[in-house]
Structure formats: C-alpha cells, structure tokens
TrEMBL record:
Annotated ranges, domain Amidohydrolase-related: 11-308
Name this polypeptide is given: Dihydroorotase
Biological role: Catalyzes the reversible cyclization of carbamoyl aspartate to dihydroorotate.
Gene: pyrC
Claim: Zinc is one of the keywords in the record: yes
Assembly with partners or alone: Homodimer.
Domain of life of the organism encoding this protein: Bacteria
Example GO biological process: 'de novo' pyrimidine nucleobase biosynthetic process
Keywords per UniProt: Hydrolase, Metal-binding, Pyrimidine biosynthesis, Zinc
A Pfam family assignment: Amidohydro_1
Names of the cofactor(s): Zn(2+)
Family membership: Belongs to the metallo-dependent hydrolases superfamily. DHOase family. Class II DHOase subfamily.
Its EC number(s): 3.5.2.3
Length: 346
C-alpha cells in the first residue's frame, strides 16, 4: 500500500461559522489541519479586536478534547475600521490577517467596502506593520458578467491598491482563473493566493449541465475547464505564491437547495484525500507538501508544522457520509463525482 507523509497541513481560508454549526464543522477541520485562517463573515461580522478575541475563545472552547488546532483570527474590513484597533490586534498576536470583502460580493458581505479609496490609511498602516490583506477578488458592478468579475477586479481594484501601497502583503483568496494565477505568479513575495479544493475539481459544467447542482455553487463561481486546468497546473507546480485555502463554507441544505441558494461548498471532511487524488493524477504527489504545508507558512512568516499527517492509498474507494448532521441542519459534503482511493491514516 502506498502512503505519503507530510507535515500537518494548514487551511489558509476557512469558514467555521458560530454556535451549533461551528460545533459540528470544527472537528472536521481540526482532525487533519494544524491551523486555519478563520474568516470573519459572521452575522454581525468580526470587525473589532474585541470581537475576534471573543470569537477565538468560542472556537477554542468548542474544540474536541485532545484536538491540536490553532485558529488564526482575522478582522472584517469596513469603511469604519480604525487603523489603531487593527494595529493593536495585530501586534498582540490576536489577528493574523484582515479580510476585504467588496460590499455585496459574496455571503455576508453587506458590511464590506464600497469605496476602496477610503481604505488608504488602513492599507498604509497594514503595510507598515506587515499585516496581510486577504481579498475576495471580485467586482460587484451589475454590468460586469459574473464569470469576468475576478479578472476585472485584478485590473480595476487589486493592482491599483498594490501600486498605491507598496509593501502591502496581499493574498488573493480562492483564485479561480488563469488571469488570476498569471497575475499572482508575476508578482514578488508580497503577493500570494489561495486555491480551493473544489476549484481544482469542478468547472462550470458541473454546476449547470444535466440540472442545476446547488452544492457546487460557490463564489467566485467555478469557471470554464481551461481555467480549472490552469489552477491544477499551478497548485501542483510547487510555485511558492500558491497555497491551500479550502474555503470550506458550510450552509444548511435548505439554504442551498432553494430558489435563491447560498454560495459556499463544504469540503473540510474530505479535502486532504481529494488533494492527494488530484496531485497523484498530475504525477505531482511530491508537490502536495509545498501546496498544503509549506507555502502558506512561508507567506505568513510562520513555522511549518512539526507534526505529520499520513495519507494512504486504499483498495476500495473511501466513503464519506453524504451529509454532516449539525444542530443547524444537515450540511452536504462536497462530492468530487469520482471515486477516491486515498484516506487519512488514523
Ligand atoms: N465562497 C463562498 O461561496 N461562500 C463563502 C464566502 C466567500 O468566501 O466568498 C461563505 O461564507 O459562504
Ligand atoms: Zn470569498
Ligand atoms: Zn470563503
């Protein structure tokens, strides 16, 4: 039986939610991952240092007995964000990054930023203290086609912000296009990007062909196959700009299977075996270590985890429950649509 042992991986983009949902999904991540960047798009959002401290304490209190997992907290940027509050939270080690949601771009982004120019003093302060900015990189103008929103964001928002604020460390979250990976790959080491598990596996046909599949709907929406190929080639290349951010984003089934379904794919449970499958299919199992364990810590200036995770090849396909039962309702797990002969060794 073939196995691969890597440092325990980290998830550089994760939604844990709160309350009953958090209690159910947190063990799914803590089982395989040592650390995760915790997204702040709660209702109401995590905007102040005191909110992040309280949320971190709720996460720590919800961890299963014996779990070895560190939540890396973030703050949700609004036009009211106080640069001093950010700096205090960063310097005390409470937060690891700040998240920029263009207002209206995605789930729970209504309090996000409308006028990026207003954020200049905040970005300058972040550049000074080396606090990374994580961005949901899509414009929201109604006239821009949803499949073009990432590429337009790069030209009209991301690149201007970076030019105006030299030294600002930026992560383009859940990059979904060749335009995105080409942009990031051409920048210096102050620019990184996360790639999700599901964007390595599905393209837009998976969402729309043969009936609409709400559990494949997320934002940024999956693009055409040539973009998915660019993501796979990039993730498996070992390029240090790119690292795993699952964007595992649970919503209870009734909220997804609806006339106006929520965006988000839940993949915490099966991400590592799925990645082993994808990397093996490219003949690049060796690059799983850089993508899932090394490139993220390097960008964030953190040590690679010293504990390890072993994945083993299985004779029969690994079975996962179709749904995770939570106190907030059932949550459907991401289904790659093919059998997976990898499992995390217990
Ligand atoms: N990715 C998603 O489709 N949804 C995320 C928000 C986000 O990361 O944009 C969520 O919070 O549900
Ligand atoms: Zn997002
Ligand atoms: Zn997300």
């Amino acid at each position: 039986m073939s196995t691969i042992t890597i440092p325990r991986p980290d998830d550089w983009h994760l939604h844990l939610r709160d309350g009953a949902m958090m209690h159910a999904v947190l063990p799914e991540t803590a089982r395989d991952f040592a650390r995760a960047i915790i997204m702040p798009n709660l209702v109401p959002p995590v905007t102040r240092g005191s909110d992040a401290a309280a949320y971190r304490d709720r996460i720590l209190a919800a961890l299963p007995e014996g779990a070895r997992f560190t939540p890396l907290m973030t703050l949700y940027l609004t036009e009211e964000t106080d640069p001093d509050d950010l700096a205090t939270a960063a310097q005390s080690g409470l937060i690891t990054a700040v998240k920029l949601y263009p207002a209206g771009a995605t789930t729970n982004s209504a309090s996000g930023v409308r006028d990026f120019d207003k954020m200049r003093p905040v970005f300058e302060r972040m550049a000074e203290i080396g606090l990374p900015l994580c961005v949901h990189g899509e414009v929201t103008s109604p006239e821009v086609d949803i499949f073009d929103r990432e590429a337009v964001f790069i030209d009209t928002v991301l690149d201007p912000i970076r030019r105006a604020t030299p030294g600002l460390r930026v992560v383009m979250e859940h990059v979904t296009t060749k335009d995105g990976v080409d942009y990031v790959a051409a920048q210096g080491d102050d620019m990184g990007a996360t790639i999700t598990t599901h964007h390595l596996i599905i393209n837009r046909n998976h969402i729309l062909v043969g009936g609409i599949k709400p559990h494949y709907y997320c934002l940024p929406v999956a693009k055409r196959e040539s973009h998915r190929r660019a993501l796979v080639e990039t993730a498996t290349s070992g390029n240090p700009h790119f690292f795993l951010g699952t964007d595992s984003a649970p919503h209870a089934d009734p909220a997804k299977e609806s006339a106006c379904g929520c965006a988000g794919v839940f993949s915490a449970t099966n991400t590592m075996p799925l990645l082993a499958h994808v990397f093996e299919a490219e003949g690049r199992l060796d690059a799983l270590r850089s993508f899932a364990c090394e490139n993220g810590p390097r960008f964030y200036g953190l040590p690679v985890n010293s504990e390890t995770l072993t994945l083993e090849k299985t004779d029969t396909p690994t079975q996962w429950p179709e749904k995770l039962q939570t106190g907030a309702g059932p949550v459907t797990l991401f289904d790659p649509g093919f059998p997976v002969y990898w499992a995390v060794k217990k």
